Amino acid sequence: MQSNTANHDLKSRENPPNPRVLLVGYNGANNTGSEARLLAIIEDVRSLLGPQVEITVPTLNEENLRRYLAEDEHLHIAPIPSIFFLAIDKLVKQHDLVLLVEGSCYMDTWTSALLWAFLWATHSAHRQNKPCVAYAVDAGELSPLNRWLVKREASKTDLIITRTRHALERLQKIGVTAPITSTADCAYTFQEDSKDQDFLNSLWPEASEGTVGLAVVDFSLWPVVIRPWGREENLYKWPYYFSRSPERMKIREKLMEGWARTADEIIQKHHKKVVFICMEELDQPLAEDIQERMENKDKCRIVSSRQYNASQMTSMLSGLDLLVTSRYHSAVLSLRAGVPQIAVAHDPRLTSLYQDLHLYQDYLLCHDDPHLWEDLQGKINLLLGDSDLQKDKLEPGLSQQLTLSQKNRIILGKFLKEKNIIS
Predict the structure, then answer these.
(1) pLDDT (tens digit per residue) in 214-272
(2) Cα separation of 158 and 100, whole Å?
(3) Which is nearest to 324 in space by CA: 266, 284, 250, 254?
(4) Is the pLDDT assigned to residue 134 strictly greater than 90?
(5) Distance CA 63, CA 31 (A)
């Protein structure tokens, strides 16, 4: 295994006056969490390197990325192809610093291809003697092959900052030898626009009567697999296809039935409105199908990242009476408003967060628990009956997570000084 002792002294090379920073992540997917992270990280980079720093954001989805990221003379959007190896290699060569900015960095829950893109960026940076930092990232489930790849390639990273202590421990257990420290997710420092305050009520005035948010995920789609061909309805972006199967469609059917019953009971028993929160646009078809199953469709709305940006979605989350979520970043972005929450988890990210918030024992449910829907309804009844039940955990949890998140910029600043990128 190669060590991390290579000298990445940028000022010793002939560079333009402004450092060039490459942000490698899940950019342009109409994903609220990735959007909030990206915008917060751009602020961190500019605060440390100045407003003239040259920042490049590569993406498979240029049109989507331009919805929320304004390109200017110092901020550049770089479209890359689905087979990304050569494009990433070239971009790394053109830049002075590589930041891995995707939260779900070291896991193959969604697709191995995404993991390989981040590992390839690290590999390319190491080979080209460019400093590389994984910036407030997570680690989760990995196949044996991907564990071996992470151990080999992530060890070439100059610095890994994980967003939970549990992610740090997972990487160390795998055998990653790069310097690792743990903080919290960048999205805690994301600030919504003041014009988006009270967004939910302005969008849906009836929501002022009280609203429960359900952030759903279609578990049956994942992981995305690499195939030379497949059914058009399963195509994500060639050569990536959703891994549908008869068994997975049964899972989806159970999800629709369970969420529809849950939403109807919230409306009928607690006289609340329900908003389905699509933190990624891929969640929207499931939300629409659930709504079709409901008896009380007129008292339910769908709010999707396909239409609304991270500022609007964050404001909407802050206006809820209760959040039931399968999405990590809806839990994070609602925390600042002290919204009571319950997780229906399907990977280690929510599990790790709820352990940090001390909500794991009482308010985290596994998506394949045989008593999921009965237990979920019981917890919904409990929190809607007393909204202060989690107060002693949410307030100190937010304070701790925000303090840790603010350390990301400090740690990056120290790294940049060590590499003579800033004085």
Answers:
(1) 999 988 777 777 777 888 877 777 777 877 778 878 889 999 999 999 999 999 999 99
(2) 11
(3) 266
(4) yes
(5) 13
| Number of neighbours of residue 86 by Cβ within 10 angstroms | 10
pLDDT for 137:
98
Rounded-to-integer distance, Cα 347 and Cα 40, Å: 24
- Quick one: pLDDT at residue 16? 55
Q: Compute CA distances 39 → 320, 357, 372, whole Å.
A: 24, 24, 35
Distance, in Å, from the CA atom of 173 to the CA atom of 179, rounded to the nearest integer, reads 14
- Name the band, by pLDDT with cuts 50, 70 and 90, for residue 347: confident
Cα 214 to chain centroid distance, Å, stands at 17
Are residues 294 and 261 in contact, defined by beta-carbon separation less than 8 angstroms? no
Beta-sheet pairing, 235-237 with 97-100? unpaired
* Confidence (pTM): 0.92
Domains of the chain, start order: 10-190+401-418 (3.40.50.2000), 195-389 (3.40.50.2000)
Cα separation, 94 vs 74, whole angstroms? 14
Strand partners, 240: 226, 237
Is the pLDDT at 11 greater than 90? The verdict is no
DSSP 8-class letter at 274: E
DSSP code string of 1-27:
---S-----GGGS---SS-EEEEESST
Bridge-based pairing of strands 20-24 and 97-100 is parallel
Q: Are 337 and 318 in contact (CB under 8 A)?
A: yes
Local structure of 404: helix, strand or coil: helix
Mean pLDDT, residues 49-74: 95
Residue 254 CB: number of other CB atoms within 10 A? 16
Q: In the beta sheet, which residues pair with residue 160?
A: 134, 180
